[in-house]
Structures are given as C-alpha cells and as structure tokens.
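Review this chain:
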Amino acid sequence: MLEKIREGSQGLAAKIILGLVILSFALAGIGGYLGQTTEQSVAEVNGVKITQRDFARAFDNERARQEQQFGEYFAQLANDPTFMAQLRQSVTNRLIQQELQSQLAAEMGLRVSDAEVRKAIIDMPAFQFGGKFSNDRYLQVMRQMGFQADDFREFLRKEMTRSQLVSALAGTDFTLSNELNQAVGLQQQERAIDYLVIDNDKFKETVTVSDEEIQNYYDLNQAQFLAPEQVKVAYVELNADTLELAEPISAEQIKEYYEQNQAMYSEPEKRRVAHILIENSEDDAAAQQKAEELLAQLQQGADFAELAETQSDDIVSAELGGDLDWIERDMLDPDFEDAAFALKDVGQLSEVVQSEFGYHIIKLTDLQPGEMKALADVEPEIRSELEKVEKADIYYEKQTELAELAFEVSDSLEDAAAAIGATVQTTDLLARVQLPAPLNQPNVASVIFSPELLEDRVNSEVLELGNEHVVVVRVVDHKPAATKELAQVREQIQDILVAEKASSLAKEQAETLFAELEAGTAIATLAEQAGVELLSEDKLTRRTFSVPPALTQQVFKLAHPDATPVVDLVELNNGNVALVALKSVNTPSETEVDDQVKQSLTMQLANKNYQTFVEALEAQAEVVRKPMAPQGE
C-alpha cells in the first residue's frame, strides 16, 4: 500500500495538480507562517511588512512559471532589464493586493472554519489515493513542499478567506440589457478609413552611426547587455525505469502473484435494481405498514414502475420507475445491499427492508455475474508490475548508496557513480534557462545556483525528479553574470541606433505631411506626394488584423467625423508612422446578444469592477514600496 501511495504521489498528474495548487498559493507569500523575521521588507501595507522572503518565493515561482510558458524565448526576455523590472513590480503589486484583501476580509469578520479547511484538504486530488483522501500521502506531500501540516492549514485558511471576499464581490455584478446592447454595438461597430504608412526602412540607408555614438550607447545602457550567470554542471542520474534486472521475471512468479491477488483480476458481480422507498422520519409504524401494503399489491400483480412513480419518496428514482442503475458491493446502505444481493432471479422482489432512510421494496431488474480474468490475459500486466517492484527494490538500494557516497566524498561524483553503475555526465557552461533535462526542473536549478554549490563546490543532496527518479549535481565551473564586451554587441547597438535614427526621420516626414493634412490637403494627394501607397479599409472592426494594431486602436478613439474626415498621426510599434483619415462610423442599431456574449461581457465588467475595487483599497491604505535588488536574472 505504501509503495503505491509513493508511486501515486510522484506521478505526473499529481505533480501537475500540486503545481497548480502551489502556484495559486505562491504569490500569497508564506513567510508569515514560518516564523517572525527581521529581514528587509519590499513593501509595507498599513504597517504590515511584505518581506524579502515572501517576495523571493513569489518571484521564483512566477519566474519558473514563465520559463515553462515561454521556453527558450524566456532567456531573451530575462536579458531585458525592463522586462525583469516589470516582472518584479508585477509580483510586488500582487502581494500588496493580496495583503489588502486579507486585511479587509479580517475587518469584515470573514473567516473559514476548521471544518471547511479540513474539507478543502480532503477534496484536493493531490492528497487522494484511489479516489479517497490518504493521510499518508498528505503528510508525504507536505514534507516534499517544505510545509508543516499546521502551517499549511493556516496558509490555506488565509487563501480561502481571501477568496470569500473576491467571490462576494464578483457575485454582486450584473449587467443591464441596455448596457449589453450598447457594449455589443460598440464591439460590432465598423469604421471606414484611408491611411498611408511612412516606412522607416527607406531611411536606414541614409543614416550613419559613429563609433562615438556606439560607445556612448553602450556606456549608458550596459544593463541591456548583461551575459547571464553560467554554470558547468556534473551530475549522476538514477531512474528506476532504466534499471536492468539480474534475471527476467519467471512464469512461476507470475502465476504465484496471480493466485495471491485474484481479487485484482476479477470483475465483481453487478446488479441492476429498482426500489420503492417509504420514509419513516415522521411515523415509523405507519411507514412500515404502507410498505407492507405496497408489497402485497406487487405480489398480486401491480406494476412496480407505476407504484414507484406514484408512491416512492425517492423523487429522483421515482421518475425512472424506481431504477437505481447498476450497483456493486459497498456502494449503498449495507442492509439494502444484503437484500439486493440475496435476490436470485431477475424480476424477483425482496421483503420490506429497513435502512437509515426508511423502508424499501427492492426489485432485481438485471444481473451481471462476476467474472475472473484468465491468467493469459493479465500476464503482461503482472510481468510489468513485478518488474516494476523489483526495479524499485534495486532503485532504493542504489539511491541509498548514491546518497551516502555523494555525501562522504563531497568533492567528486565519480565514487558515487561507480557504486551504482552509472556515469558522471557533464554539461557545457550554460545559463539557468538553458539547463537540459533533467536539470531544468525548478527544484534542481535552485540548488545548482545556490551559494553552497557555487562557492563550496560540494555535491548536492539527492534531488527528486519524479517517480523513483533522482539526480545528484555539483558545479564544476561558474561564470558570474557580467556585461558583454562592446565587440560582442557592437553590431546589435549599431542596428538599434540606425533604427532609432530612421524612425526619427520617418516621423519628421510624417509630421510635415500631417500639417498639410490638417490644413485640408487630401490624404490621397499626400500619398502621391510621398511616393507611398494609399490604403483603405471600409469595414474596419476592432478585430481587423490586416491593419496595424496600434492604428486600429487609435482609430477607435477618434471622434465621429462630420462633413470632413477626422485625421490623426499614429506612431506604430515597428517604428513606422501612419497618417489616417476617418471617413465614417457605422454602429448597428439592433444587436443580438447570445448567452456566450452576455457571459463574456459580464465577466469583463466584473474584472473591471474588481480592479477598481483593488485600486480603491490601495488608495485608502498606507502602502510603502521599497527599492528592490534584482533577483539574480
């Protein structure tokens, strides 16, 4: 049993579920539950500190989530100081918002009882085995997460209390019919435009960049050219799935296992039954008498389904003629089951049976006898199970040896690898986001980049990768984060400066043309004058993708035109500049609002109101944000 619990708790599905649980809680910060600290805070909310520990845990989780989401592209994002600053700010803002919500919930007297917390834990799939809560698994997962059980319960209570507040706010939102019609009308609105684009590419050949400009840009923007911290890692991997057995599983072992575990390979007997229930909560004697009278009618030929429909107090099954569908042992009340499984023939009626719900008359409507699977049919399954068990035994022996020797000979992995019949594998110098499997798991990467391994160059402890799969790592070489040499980024800087200058020239030309456009010159004339194509879109919507998004966004901010078009100059995201003339606006007078659209718009309104609510909380609170050091990007 314990073996299966261990296997289940290490499985992919359980880890995904647990990962979601951890992610949903991570940004709440759990430092407050782990003891008081005097460490520097990143913010204070009405005098309550959000500590560096809270922030670091939340930041690491958010970074790991984004690494998984963006993959190799995250390395480029992480090299952008602006992006990382925004990420740090986003995490801080969320922690502040959650603290504000927690304080308001406490002020309003919202709380979650011990029973509700207990039920939430019992219902979490991560703590279940075979569809039922397993205390062994619960305690094991708690240890793996670094929680004490009491800490986790209080942590969960705080999260659930905060959720009460959010749910109450969202539950009060509603949208009037005229609001829906107006919103849908705006969504479906069409606008007719003419526009031209001044492309900055045509200016790139005309601009030059001096060595001095390149040097100045490099000196002023060195944070953009940081080479990430790199490590060269040696590691020994142990995986039960790849282990070889000394001898194959024999036919005798398979047969013995089959005979000892026949219950696992048998289909239980199933019965389909119908019943008539007479509740006895008010008058037990009267209920029993009524049941006896109904049984007498049935024995005299009355139709069971008709009586069930008109007389049964089980209103759900009554509509189905009393049908309860297929049942197996240990599904229903024991007294009910004993009577149902005592019936021998389809159509047979039971005597009146008493249960905790009242008095029943049971009818057997179908029967499916139990059946034993043949040994030949389950032989591959048993062989696989026995191989798994034997490999697990070998695995745990080797894991113990690996842990002991990696600790005893802490300056090398060779002895540990030799003891378990493995080889030491070594990577090249790699950044955190470039680590290959199996080193790219967050728990392993965190250990690799820990001061102990980077500075002391010792072996790590045994690190869990999955079900009976571990690794031990050590840092062979370390290259701290450093600014790249100018020669390495010279071409990149030159491209940036050329693009900036070309965009500036494009904007100058566009501003000159725009002055003429405002003075009354037709946009078609200006397009011909600039030697660019005049483009038109007569049915521009908010979801038109053939027009640059920045242009579409600005067009829908313009006022409705009268006799003359409304004109504007729009800088596009790629450095180009557009001139646009809005000719007309068409808003549908009648719109159809289906349930899906209604739900979407209501959710948008709820999200908007929630954000307004959070902003109002912060405006009324004393919030102090403090400068933060970069988190090792």
